[in-house]
Amino acid sequence: MTPALPEPLVIQAGRADRHYWRDLWRYRELLGFLAWRDVKVRYKQAALGVAWAVLQPAVQTILLTFVFGKLARMPDGGVPYPLLVLAGLLPWQLFSSAFSGASNSLVGNAHLISKVYFPRLVVPLSALAVALVDLAILLVISVPVILAFGVIPTWRLALLPLFIVAALLIALGAGLWITALTVKYRDFRFIAPFLLQIGLFVTPIGYRTDFLPNWRDLLSLNPLTGVVNGFRWCLLGGGMEFYTPGLLVSLAATAVLLATGLWYFRSTERQFADVI
Amino acid sequence: MPADTVISVSGLSKRYRLGHVARHDTLRDALGHKLRRLARLGREDPGRGSREEFWALREVSFEVRRGEVIGIIGRNGAGKSTLLKIISRITEPTAGLIELRGRVASLLEVGTGFHPELSGRENVFLNGAILGMSRGEIRRKFDEIVAFAEVEKFLDTPVKHYSSGMYVRLAFAVAAHLEPEILVVDEVLAVGDYAFQRKCLGKMSAVASDEGRTVLFVSHNLGSVTGLCSRALWLADGRLNASGPAAAVVADYIRSQTEQTRTAFDFRDRGGPERAAGRLVLTGLELNQAGAILHRESFRARIHFRTNAPVDGVAFGLGFCSVEGTRLATIDSDLDGQRRSYPAGHAGWIEVALPELQLGPGRYALDLGARCGDVASLDYLPSCGMIEVQPGPRTSAGAVQIPGGGLRLSARWQESSEASA
Asked: How far is CA B139 from its chain centroid?
């Protein structure tokens, strides 16, 4: 007796794939393996990998503290300026590394896309892992620094994972747009670093939005603003107020970015193998 | 659809728009193109549609029953790889319908996703996951895979230190242990040594006959198609030209190929847009300046090519195969210490000369290739043409009587007679 044949899978032009999300779940192990590969390769030369993950934010913290705190004399509201910058840089590093990873993911895995089937979302999703590992290392190093400045984190620290997820979702939403566009138009490779450069200033990393009442609603349109404020609120204890309307605006912007990113990615996905 | 049909393909067509690759490579080009169209206000250039489109498959229909091993044959650019890519769900058809019953695993390349920095062990897991195996499945078969590949000693060495033979063996071993209901294999056996090829072919036929698995198999080696497949599909210019018992279809195919013996070949339209955009593209081949090819006379091959990007250390090769596809002789510029570098946008030819052609009279298929470094293929055209070597003035009468004998090496002979006691 041979086993009964399964229900046929139908392949047809333009047919919406009903099994897409189920397939994505089925390929979760591949997602894990690709993430593990990226992390492994990045930290293969462990010393150098960790050094890079730490050196860049350390230098940026010093520079931004100098420019915004000393030169521009922005108000710090009683929080040591270096900590303000550090707590802003943590989510920024997470976002920028996740965003550039996701943006380059499809072209970087072109050989897989043209030779094997799997839901293509696996690729940008797996690219987020390296950013998470980088963040973990940064957090481990940042906590003693925060303590050294005499700031004791409170129960709010427990809510940090929520803001980490939010930063990843923003990076994914933006990354999906850029990576899908890069497949077709290779010059989008140069747009991602350019966007990051702008983002470094329109995201309140070097300053606080609660002392800029005229600007903070506009700045909240940048979904990262909510995340940065959230990180500060979680890490820096009582010195930070929570501005709920700003967070809601940022969350709405995140949802729009993610939904449109997914929509564009899914609608171009089937042609990836033909044009990559 | 009958009960034991596992693959049913009807009216399958695939169109590639060359413009997507060749013209809209950058955003600026795409915008410029849109603006120009706007300026013409919809007045379409009538000749343009046909130039920008390329039908890789047209109206292909066939069915495959469970347990069949199907060989797909045809010249380069006939649509074989496109067909496999659509069945593997890598790319979407333009029209038509496929129904598949069962899990499909495709092996379009050996070692897809192998990462040079990772060890052999790590790559087995990574590659297995990419091919659709679960972690538990890979762990269960791990020892078997390693034994099949014969790389036990180097499991924890990064694969960048592997020889190309070891690399291919490990990669194929992973693929050979897939357990899908439908296995789709492109010409992957062309790499690897002969003994290993035999082992893989053996594994594939065992899979089909013992476990009722269905195999779709593309090859230029017609010998392995007749040896391995029950049925063959012959694709020509994207259409299904013939299908039936493997031996009969292969025989028809060989006949049609040998009718086309020539001495000049144009490869500019071969393959899809992917090939045309390659770093180096082989565009043509001229033999003996279009004169006859004679046994034991001088032989010259002029390989025409162009480059799209700068390439360093390019080696050119020309292979002579029997009509069944077995390689009989190879000319390789690397062997003669000839490697060259070209800037982007270079177009020209390189010529190789043999003082005496030692292939016996008969018909031979040509493989043409260019590669850079040791393994990276720039362009490869297996079975890209058929030539006829004719008896020359120095061919002995005996050799004319027994044509197609492959290399006829002239050697030095000595003799002595046993001193009688």
From this structure: 32
Residues of A in contact with B187 (CB under 8 A): none
CA angle B20, B25, B30 (to 5 degrees): 75
Structure-token pair, residue A103: 């943006």
Q: Is residue B19 in some structural domain? A: yes
Confidence class for position A1, pLDDT limits 50, 70, 90? very low
For an interface test with B, give the residue of A37, A38, A191 to mutate (most B CBs within 10 A): A37
Give the whole-number percent of chain A exceeding pLDDT 70.
94
**CA B58 to chain CA mean position, Å:** 21
Q: Which residue segment(s) compose the domain that B15 sits in?
A: 5-30+50-256
**Model confidence at B44: pLDDT above 60:** no
Q: Which DSSP category does A51 fall into?
A: H
Alpha helices in B79-131 (DSSP H): 80-87, 120-130
Residue of B24, B30, B85 lying closest to A273 (CB–CB): B85
Q: Cβ separation of A41 and B130 shorter than 8 Å?
A: no
**CA closest to B113 among chain A residues:** A112
Strand partners, B69: B215
Q: Are residues B289 and B164 in the same domain?
A: no
- The answer as to whether B35 is a domain residue is no
pLDDT above 50: residue B22: no
Q: How confident is the model at residue B70, as a pLDDT?
A: 92
- Name the maximum alpha-carbon separation found in chain B: 103
User: Which tokens in the block code for residue A180?
Assistant: 């899908």
Under a CB-based contact definition with an 8 Å cutoff, are residues B234 and B240 in contact? yes
Are residues B290 and B203 located together in one domain of the fold? Answer: no
Q: Domain check: are B177 and B241 in the same one? A: yes
| The pair of three-digit structure tokens given for residue A216, joined into one six-digit string | 């903070």
Mean pLDDT of chain B: 82
CATH code at position B163: 3.40.50.300
* Phi/psi of residue B222, nearest 5 degrees: -65, -25
Under the banding of pLDDT at 50, 70 and 90, the label for residue B23 is very low
The average pLDDT across B299-310 equals: 92
Give the ipTM.
0.85
Instruction: Search chain B and give the residue with CA nearest A116.
Output: B90
Which CATH number is B309's domain given? 2.70.50.60
Distances (CA, A) of B337 to B85, B137, B148, B308: 38, 46, 35, 24
- Total domains in the fold of chain A: 1
Q: Name the residue in chain A with its Cα closest to that of B14.
A: A13
Number of neighbouring beta carbons within 10 Å of residue A268: 16
CA pair distance B394, B74, nearest whole angstrom:
36
Q: Is the dihedral of CA B333, B334, B335, B337 positive or negative?
A: positive
Q: Is A45 helix (H, G, I), strand (E, B) or coil?
A: coil
Residue numbers in B near A40 (CB within 8 A) = 117-118, 122
Integer angstrom CA distances of residue A42 from A46, A133, A205, A271? 8, 10, 26, 30
- Residues linked to residue B389 through DSSP beta bridges, in sequence order: B293, B362
B232, B249 in Cβ contact below 8 A?
Answer: yes
Domain count for chain B, please give it.
2
pLDDT in tens, A43-64: 876 667 678 778 888 898 999 8
Name the β-bridge partners of B347.
B306
Q: Does A118 touch chain B (CB under 8 A)?
A: yes
Select from B66, B7, B110 the least CA-distant residue to A4.
B66
Q: What are the structure tokens assigned to A176, written together?
A: 């999906």
